[in-house]
Amino acid sequence: MNFIVKSHKKDTIYNKPHFFVLNKGMNSGKPQNEPFTNSFVIIFDSEADSENIFWIAYSLWKSKFWHQHFVGSVIPFLRLLDFKREFFQKSKLLKDEHEAHLKHVEALKLLELKEKQFHENINLINDMRKVILHRYIK
Q1: Is residue 116 over pLDDT 90?
Q2: Do residues 65 and 21 make contact, with C-beta atoms less than 8 angstroms apart?
Q3: How many other CB atoms sit within 10 Å of the CB of residue 33?
C-alpha cells in the first residue's frame, strides 16, 4: 500500500482519495475528511486504502498515541517527520494483521454510530426538559 503524507496548504484541491490529520493543539493526530487549518494530508491511490488507514489514524488519535510525540511548550504540535515515521510503522504493523484490523474497523464504525445516536438522544431529552420547564414559566 502506498500513501503520501505532506503538509496541507489552504485551498489546495486533491484529486485522489485523501483525509486530513490535525497537527497542532491537544487534538493533534485527529483524522477528518474536511481540512483543518493546521493539518497534514494523507493521499492514497484507492478509496479502500484511504478508509482502512483512516481508521488506523482514528485509533491512534483516540488512544492518545500522539501525545508522546508532541513538541512545543505553549501549543503542542506534531512535526511532519515524526508523524511520518511513526504513522508508517504503525500502519504497516496494523495492516499485517489485516483480518483483525477489519473486524476492529467494523466495531469502531458501529461504536461511532451508537455514540452519535446517544448524543442525539441526550439532545432530545434536554429539549423535552426545556419544553416542560418552560410551561412552568408561563
Answers
A1: yes
A2: no
A3: 9
